[in-house]
Amino acid sequence: GENIILISEVLLNCDFAKITPALFAGAISGLAIDSLRPRTFVKVRPSQEYDKFYFPIQKTVRALSMIQRDNGVEDSVNYVPTLAGLIEFWCKPETKWEEMLQMTNLVEGDLVRTGRRTMDLLRHIKNAPYLKQEIVNLAKAAYELMDKEPIKEVV
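User: That's the sequence. What structure does it adopt?
Assistant: Structure tokens below.
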């Protein structure tokens, strides 16, 4: 994610209690990506619980956007929820890469890039100081669920 203030505000002010690691990964993916190709579609929706997090995140986005606008800050304040369901779907242990490709019109490289950007943000969250332990644990678990080929980062 580009706007570290937005990421911090979401992590500190949104209630992620009783959320699954897969749903957390989906919600966080919207902060990790800045934009998508025009006419991107996804056939899989996030679980119903996602709305509990989407609306508070959007409220945070609007509030920060207004504060930045009023103070002449031009840093983008984006939350892109389009792939939340797809990222959540990827976190299921039984999901195969071929199934992912069938669920969207994004090309393989775009999916890998999105997955890796989400994993990168999850890595930062799980290593961040001063966050609630519940959020750190969610980020660790979500990272582990996402860490499979071909999204898996090769070090």
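The radius of gyration is 15 Å.
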